[in-house]
Amino acid sequence: MSVLEVGRVCIKTAGREAGKLCVVVKDVDDSFVLVTGPKSMTRVKRRKCNIAHLEPLEVKLPIKSDAPDSEVEAELKKTDVLKKYALPLFAGHHREVPRGYIPKHAEKKHVEETHEEKPKKEPKEEKPAEKKKTEHKEKPKTAAKPAAKKVTKKPAAKKPTIKKPAEKKATKKPASKK
Amino acid sequence: MPRPALRSRSMRRTKKKLPRGLTVLRYSKPKPGHTVCAICKSKLHGVPRELPYRVAKLPKTKRVPERPFGGHLCSKCSRKAVKSSIYKVSS
After folding, report:
1. What is the DSSP letter of A18?
2. CA–CA distances in Å: residue B79 to residues A16, A34, A100, B40, B91
3. A16–B67 C-beta distance less than 8 A
4. What CATH number belongs to A8-112?
5. Looking at CA atoms only, how far is residue B50 from chain A in angstroms?
6. What is the C-alpha R_g of chain B?
7. Distances in Å between the alpha carbon of A27 and those of A38, A56, A96?
């Protein structure tokens, strides 16, 4: 008799299958136990396993000893163990769980980071958009003055003043050199 | 005189005897240091201590242990990593 009962859901801690879920199927020895994923679900092959390499979970499946993989798979699908124990360090090791799946306990950190990034980007985008609008409005102002009355007068008045001194300097300099 | 690249004292030297009786110096690059666990800094088993071109010639299963984090963590630390991530979920 081993410590782990038949039907106990465990996670392997050692070897190439470390971090993967498995179910105890049969007692073999004091220290050994027959274990299966089943392989189609969690990629753990049906094989003998040392108890020291297993970490038991709180879930237990109603299974007879030496049950075939098809029965174990049917019982596992009724529970939500696979999604709950999709460990973030070993993500994507279950076939039922997609590769980019982030379990709920790991989600909170990602949400906080995204909130901080968003407000930084928004003000940068708004400023260039306003400038473009003012430039487009200038052309109709010169053509039809009564249409643009209150809000858009200021930018229209400033820009022509900037252009004039540049033109004057250009005309003066060649005259002084001569 | 050997060529300038081999004059460095960091090159390893071995004396070899040719069939005609001459002894000749042969030069080789030094082996890299032991790979070490990222957490406890102990030497890793199952990782060959060879030059990269020699490691590339080995079969894939002999380059690095097949378990997750193989070649980065020792077996003790990788077991702790699995267990601690289980406790985070269950608590």
Report:
1. T
2. 12, 21, 24, 13, 18
3. yes
4. 2.30.30.30
5. 24
6. 21
7. 17, 15, 27
**Nearest residue of B to residue A91 by CA position?**
B68
Residue B41, helix vs strand vs coil: coil
pLDDT digits (tens, 9 = 90+) for A21-78: 999 999 998 999 999 988 888 888 999 999 999 999 999 999 999 999 999 999 998 9
Domain ranges of chain A: 8-112
Contacts of B68 in chain A (CB under 8 A): 16, 18-19, 89-90
Asked if A55 and B86 come within 8 Å (Cβ–Cβ), the reply is yes
Q: Contacts of residue A14 in chain B, CB cutoff 8 Å?
A: 67, 75, 78-79
Distance, CA of A76 to CA of A78 (rounded, Å): 5
Query: Helix count (H) and strand count (E) of chain B?
Result: 2, 2
| Whether pLDDT at A142 is above 60 | no
Smallest CA–CA distance, residue A1 to chain B, in Å, is: 25
Angle at alpha carbon of residue A45, lines to A42 and A46, rounded to 5°: 120
- Comparing alpha-carbon positions, the chain A residue that sits nearest to B70 is A16
Residue A117 phi, psi (nearest 5):
-75, -35
ipTM for the predicted complex:
0.79
* Residue A174 binned pLDDT confidence (cut-offs 50, 70, 90): low
